[in-house]
Structure formats: structure tokens, C-alpha cells
Amino acid sequence: MMQALRDLQQSQGATLTNESFPTSFGQDADAFKAVSTGAVVVDRSHWGLLELKGRDRLRFLHNQTTNTFTERQPGEGCDTVFVTSTARTIDLATVYVTDDALLILTSPGQDQRLMDWMDRYIFPADQVSLSNLTGSMAVFSLIGPGSTACLETLGISLEAEMPYAHHRTVNIGSLSMRLAVGSGLTLAGYTLLVPADAAAPVWQHLINAGGIPAGEDLWQQLRVQQGRPAPACELTDDYNPLEAGLWQAISFDKGCYIGQETIARLNTYKGVKQKLWGIQLSALVEAGTPITANGDTIGMLTSSIPMDPGALGLGYIRTKAGGAGLEVTVGEVRGIVIEVPFLSHDYPVAQR
Questions:
Q1: Could you write out the DSSP letters of every residue in 247-294?
Q2: How far apart are the two ends of the chain, measured CA to CA in Å?
């Protein structure tokens, strides 16, 4: 369904993966600069998109994930974490509440896993149904301070100070789509959910309005810089969402949900034994390399990207070893632990 989009992107210089999504448009340096000064358009259509419908949809997802949903209204949204019964992370997802459904944006490759996971907990009395919309909708993120001006150029007026993940239907000419606040990072921007048959013209409209096209390579660079954890890297059976720094996606006031007892106990007794941090490195190191300090192994590197100079990584570090400012060694490479904006390590004093 995305062939017209892929053909257009290749004509714009895109390199596609075997899974047919763009990794680069050959101008990553310009795109990286535009994240701070203009607007970048990143194709996230290879991410999963699930639809949850039925009378009990809000209650069902409320009972399945870390955030609260029973009181949310159409047009609202939030991040939430799917966890196991022992509070081990499965995925960080963004949920958009519409008039008759919940749209769940999952990480790449996690859509069927979450479909199967939720299906296990649907009982005959539950008035819910699940559909996988992955591939039938394009997902574009517009990132950078120029994102609003880019949309206004296309005739889309935006309410001031709309909260994160709030969304509404908009039109570019005769093309209709859903526009949500938030780029998937802490950087300014928006996410668009576009029917597949409109994906190519909408992509071109965004480029014509000043958006610089970018692919997975830039997204991964931004993800690590920001500290957004990803499945198979930071989100695994080895870690819980408090260790992963996802406090903002957790409600501590809601009732029971899968994994709630463990998360509540960790919060109450301040039992987080390791935390995810950024690590400024003097050279690139492979993920999976142990992190040491004063000769002791204190953690593990989970992601890394080259930077100029050096490199940047994400890694879990034992809480007792320290945090920002700690000097470490990763393999044979020097590093220093740093704050990254996507992550929170504070115990909440109020509901987020």
C-alpha cells in the first residue's frame, strides 16, 4: 500500500532497507541541523499501529498498561508502557483516544507481539476488539522549532499550548489525516497518521512546506541523544519501566493493572536498583559492553551512536554507583554519565 510513497522517496534520494523504509536521504547533516533550527520530516510508517474498539476499550487498556485511561476523552492521548506480570518492560507506546477507538502507536516490530499479548487477556464478557492497522496508515513525525510554521504554510491552524499527544483531524487540500502534538521525542513537533493512499502526496506537501526528509539513521541518532528507550535495547525482560526512566508514562494513583504490584512496591520502598542514563563516550563502543567504575562492573551499555567528537550511548548503571557526572569506563573507552531529556529518575510527588 505504500509503494507510491516509497517510489517518491527513492526519487528524493532515499536509501531503503530490505523492509522498505528509508534509512537516509543523503543529507543527514542538514537534517540534524534542522532539528534545532527548522523542521525535519521522519517516516515512521514501519512502526506498529493497532486499533482497539468496543464499549470496554478504555477500561481494558487501563487494566493492561501503566497509564490511566478510564477518564480520558476523545482528542486526548498519552504514552503508556506495556509490562509483564512481574513489571518487566515490553514496549513504550503512544495512545490516541478517538470518538470510537484507541489508536496505539507501537515501536517497530512490536505490533503483532502486543496484539498477541492483549488477546490473551480478552475474555468473552469483554466488549473489545483488536485490529492491526500497520501498513494501512503512514506515520510521519515533523520535528523541530519550524514544525508549526511548516503546517501553517499548508493551511493548518493550531491551538496554542495543546498538551502532548492531543490530536484532531486536519486537512491538506482534500487529504484528511490525524495530527497529534509530539514528535515521539522531547523535541518540538507533531505526528501525523495518514491513510496509505494519501501518504505520498502528504509527504510531498510536507517537503514543499520546508520539511527536510530524514530516515531511520537520523531517528536513531536523535533517539539515543534524547534517551528514548527501545525494545531489544533498553526495553527488555531485564528491566522495569522505573529503571528505564519512564516515570512520566506511569500513573501511581490508578487501581490494579498488570505489573502494578511490583511497580507500586518499587516506588513505595525506593527499590530501583539501576537506572538508565546517557553516557558521553570518547569513542564508539558496541552495545552489550560492560560499564565499570573503580574496577567494579556497575552496568551495561545498551545503545551507542557515533558523534563528532566521540560517541554517545545509553546504559543501565547501578543506583548506588552514582549518576550524572560519574566517570566510567566502557570496555576500554572513557565515558561520563550525563542527563538525557527523555528520561526521569525522580520519585513523583504528584500524579503525572
A1: GGG--SSS---TTHHHHHHHHHTT---EEEEEEEESS---TT-EEEET
A2: 38
d(CA 295, CA 147): 47
Q: pLDDT tens-digit profile of 223-279?
A: 999 999 999 999 999 999 999 999 999 999 888 999 999 999 998 888 899 999 999
pLDDT band at 347 (very low <50, low <70, confident <90, very high): low
Cell of 106: 507501537
**Cβ 276 vs Cβ 244: under 8 Å:** yes
In this structure, what are the phi and psi dihedrals at residue 334, rounded to the nearest 5 degrees?
-75, 150
User: pLDDT (tens digit, 9 = 90+) per residue, 107-165?
Assistant: 999 999 999 999 999 999 999 999 999 999 999 999 999 999 999 999 998 887 899 99
> How many C-beta neighbours within 10 Å does residue 257 have?
20
Alpha carbon separation from 268 to 252, 343, 344 (Å, rounded)? 10, 20, 17
| The predicted structure's pLDDT at residue 208 | 98
Cis peptide before 309 (omega within 30 of 0): yes
216, burial (CB in 10 Å: exposed 0-12, middle 13-18, buried 19+): buried
SS3 state of residue 92: strand
Residue 299's pLDDT band (boundaries 50, 70, 90)?
Answer: very high
Say whether pLDDT at 348 is over 90.
Answer: no
CA 23, CA 29: separation in Å to the nearest integer?
14
Q: What is the edge-to-edge ordering of all strands in the sheet holding 129-132?
A: 77-83, 89-97, 101-108, 47-53, 129-132
What predicted TM-score, i.e. pTM, was given to this entire model? 0.96
The identity of residue 265, as a single letter, is R
CB atoms within 10 A of CB 149: 13
Alpha-carbon span 93 to 115, nearest angstrom:
13
Residue 334 contacts residue 281 (beta carbons within 8 Å): yes
